[in-house]
Specification:
Shape of chain B: globular
Oligomer: heterodimer
Largest sheet of chain B: 12 strands, mixed
Helix content of chain B: 40-55%
Mean pLDDT of chain B: 95
CATH topology of the largest domain in chain B: Anaerobic Ribonucleotide-triphosphate Reductase Large Chain
Number of domains of chain A: 1
Distance between the termini of chain B: 49 Å
CATH architecture of chain A: 2-Layer Sandwich
Number of strands of chain A: 4
Number of helices of chain A: 3
Number of domains of chain B: 2
CATH class of chain A: Alpha Beta
Chain lengths: 92, 452
């Protein structure tokens, strides 16, 4: 079966628990994190996660909605793009 | 090679801050097999097919946008030119009967516009073409989501001045038939109309198309503006390079999404039309790109050269990214939909003459500009003829979407709301070309058309 992977992007003011909360939400949805990159750019926390959502039992829109809710609660912007889109845009 | 954080962030930033989106997913639907002598039977069959196709389009496009994480703004349908569909219908009200049914289908399916209520009359008009033309004020006045077009000219046929003359009168009727002349915002007159253009108001499903084809309109003036602003000092060769690279990226995203959507819908994948289409969202402006290139304001000397560079870079970046680049692919310069263009007109930097000159290098033409409501019909025809001549002679598409705004004079504004924006009324020269256009007949095709 073809694996379905996404990039999750988290942007916002640095604070305690961002990685913990995001990864817990993904764990609870059976999403496997395969790669994490994180840095603070000009005072802004930025993190990208490459995640396998193949085993996530829920619709992708529901997962997106949960991430949106977490983002609102923590004052973060959380986006999710299909890996295929990022690859198409940045790799020939 | 793994994807870096900055690359993922670049995509997110384009969507978050620079209005990158798939502007239009337009499903072209063939209706030729539904022609029927009874207009009501044709209309009902069209309504059913378009409701079904439109519903599937909207549902799948939403799901794909969610899955891919790329915004899709508009879901639209285009149909076989309506004049062909009403050929066998005897009833005079056939265009209106069909139009109402198509409008109902659009509303039921949740698509925002249906294009194709038009005719190809570049060389001559059939009885059905003439009936459809005469019905346009009623059709566009009494429907919400229909868009109309006429192809009045081509590089092979020249300009049908008789039809252009008739259109001058029809445009005035269209303006009078609707509040704020809204019907005129839903109609475009073309030279060399492409049969697979996903953008409104001029989309239609041409005679050489399959039963259904999905065409993708990608936009992104905000993205290009941002990258130009990040390179304030580089020379023009490098500027072209950075624009090409950016357009390449956004076209690849659109191509991916379009191909997948076509697969899920079980229809042909048509074209990717990479056209910078501004909106009145702050920063989502073609005018701002030109100003970021170094113009004090749109309309300043250098405007045509800057626009030529921009369009060339957009086409080349798009062509590298997709083997299916088509439609209009370039840059739209609608006055009412671009804050920098509106500002340029209101400040006196941009007049009709300069706007017309810009269309010689842009991908479409005189778009969404308002003129005084008392502009004579023959003057509208003459403006249209000038614009179409640019297309005919240069073997390119040109179009005119003009708003003769009733009761308005230069300095006034017509506010359409939404994507259509607000149009400052532009002054039209009082000199008349009436005697010329009233000669009628056909303005011959250029010698450069004799290529066989």
């Amino acid at each position: 079966m073809e694996r379905q992977r996404v990039f999750i992007v988290v942007i916002g003011q640095d604070r305690k628990g961002i990685i913990a909360r995001v990864s817990t939400l993904l764990y609870e949805n059976e999403v496997n994190i395969e790669d994490v990159q994180q840095k603070v750019m000009d005072g802004t926390f930025v993190m990208t996660l490459l995640a396998d959502v193949t085993d996530c039992g829920r619709d992708i829109s529901e997962l997106r909605s949960e991430l949106d809710d977490l983002g609102s609660e923590m004052g973060l912007t959380i986006m999710m793009h299909a890996e295929a889109v990022i690859k198409a845009m940045h790799r020939v | 090679m793994s994807i870096g954080l900055e690359e993922v962030l670049e995509t997110s930033g384009m969507i978050l801050f620079e209005n990158f989106d798939i502007r239009a997913l337009t499903l072209g639907v063939n209706l030729k097999d539904l022609v029927h002598p009874e207009a009501a039977a044709l209309a009902e069959a069209a309504r059913r097919r378009l409701t079904d196709q439109g519903t599937r389009l909207v549902r799948e496009a939403r799901a794909l946008s969610d899955e891919f994480g790329v915004p899709v703004v508009n879901k639209r349908l285009s149909i076989t030119p309506a004049a062909w569909l009403i050929e066998p219908c005897a009833a005079d009200d056939a265009p209106l009967v069909l139009a109402r049914a198509v409008d109902q289908a659009a509303a039921a399916a949740g698509v925002d516009f249906v294009g194709g209520f038009g005719a190809l009359v570049q060389k001559g008009a059939t009885a059905a073409d003439r009936r459809l033309m005469d019905a346009l004020p009623q059709v566009l006045g009494q429907t919400e989501r229909l868009c109309g077009f006429l192809n009045l000219a081509s590089s092979a046929a020249g300009i049908n001045m008789d039809a252009a003359l008739r259109l001058g009168v029809i445009l005035k009727q269209m303006a009078a038939a609707t509040e704020r002349a809204m019907a005129c915002a839903k109609f475009v007159a073309f030279a060399n109309a492409p049969e697979d253009n996903p953008f409104m108001a001029g989309a239609f499903h041409g005679g050489g198309e399959a039963d259904a084809a999905l065409n993708v309109g990608i936009s992104g003036p905000g993205v290009v503006r941002a990258v130009v602003q990040k390179h304030p000092d580089c020379d023009l060769t490098m500027l072209s390079e950075v624009i090409r690279r950016t357009v390449f990226k956004i076209t690849r995203a659109g191509e991916l999404l379009g191909r997948e959507l076509a697969r899920r819908l079980g229809v042909s994948f048509g074209v990717v039309d990479i056209s910078l289409a501004p909106t009145t969202a702050v920063g989502d402006s073609v005018g701002l790109i030109l100003e970021a290139m170094g113009l004090e304001k749109v309309g300043a000397p250098g405007t045509i050269a800057a626009l030529a560079l921009l369009i060339d870079a957009v086409k080349k970046g798009g062509a590298m990214a997709s083997g299916n680049v088509g439609g209009l692919s370039g840059t739209f310069i609608p006055v009412s939909e671009d804050l920098a263009m509106i500002d340029a007109v209101q400040s006196g930097a941009l007049n009709l003459d300069k706007l017309e000159a810009m269309t010689a290098v842009c991908s479409v033409g005189l778009d969404m500009f308002a003129v005084p409501g008392d502009t004579p019909a023959e003057t509208l025809t003459a403006i249209i003829a000038d614009e179409l001549a640019i297309g005919v002679v240069n073997h390119k598409t040109t179009g005119v979407r003009v708003i003769p705004a009733p009761g308005k004079q230069p300095g006034d504004t017509v506010d359409f709301g939404g994507l259509l924006g607000r149009a400052p009324v532009m002054a039209v020269p009082e000199l008349s070309g009436r005697a010329f256009v009233c000669r009628g007949g056909r303005l011959p095709a250029p010698a450069s058309a004799l290529r066989n």
